[in-house]
Amino acid sequence: MPPVELVRSCESAPVANHSIRSYLFAALAAEHEGLKAGADFDAELLFHACVLHDLGASPSAPGLARFEVEGADMAARFLTEHGYGADRTDLVWEAIALHSSGGIAERRGALAYLTRRGVGLDFGVGSEFVTDAQGEALHGRYPRLDMATALVDDIVRQAARSPEAGARYTLPGEFLRERGEPGGVTAVERAARASRWGS
User: CA dihedral defined by 46, 186, 59, 104, rounded to 10 degrees?
Assistant: First the structure.
């Protein structure tokens, strides 16, 4: 099964579209920053890291560890089953496991950096260089569909499955805590609604 079919089969439409947009935004960021596929990063691995980065928030994840780690494990199994060697698989594992870890992903090489950058751009972070026409084209083909709330809902469901999946001070643990507060809206959802692209 190709990776896009995999995410479409186990993720909600808003989250699957986010995963695909994250890759397209990462590719735009690489071009904007002068990073060259083949020289600075492996374009195929960037595609897999971005498109598969939220598998751990899907119902297919076991819910025994934080979603970033489970997603990295699921992506690694997928790549291994499709003949990728440990060296390339490990790079994708690291990029996915660190995609929510600001200040760390940026120091672990171009693949981890661009994966985090693509995800952030889909939340509007640092998107000034993206033209309105580019944004409209991406969102026309892969609409947002209230992605921020759908993604937070999925992460909270996964985090609630075990103490390890929703440990305090991790992203899923904080989402779980914020959902339990009056109003139940996370800071990420509020930021997304106020961002360039909306939620």
Answer: 30
Burial per residue of 60-75, b for 16 or more beta-carbon CB atoms within 10 angstroms, e otherwise: ebebebbbbbbbbbbb
- Residue 43 included in any domain: yes
Residue 95 is assigned to a structural domain of this protein: yes
Residue 42 is part of which domain span?
A: 3-145
Residue 103: helix, strand or coil by DSSP? coil
Location of structure tokens 């899907």: 58
Query: Does 172 map to a domain?
Result: no
| The total number of structural domains that make up the chain | 1
Here the CATH number for the domain that contains residue 101 is 1.10.3210
pLDDT (tens digit per residue) in 20-67: 999 999 999 999 999 999 999 999 999 999 999 999 999 999 999 999
Alpha helices in 2-161 (DSSP H): 3-10, 13-32, 43-51, 67-81, 86-97, 110-122, 132-141, 147-159
Residue 9 lies inside a defined structural domain of this protein: yes
Q: How far is CA 127 from the centre of its chain?
A: 16
Q: Is the dihedral of CA 76, 77, 80, 82 positive or negative?
A: negative
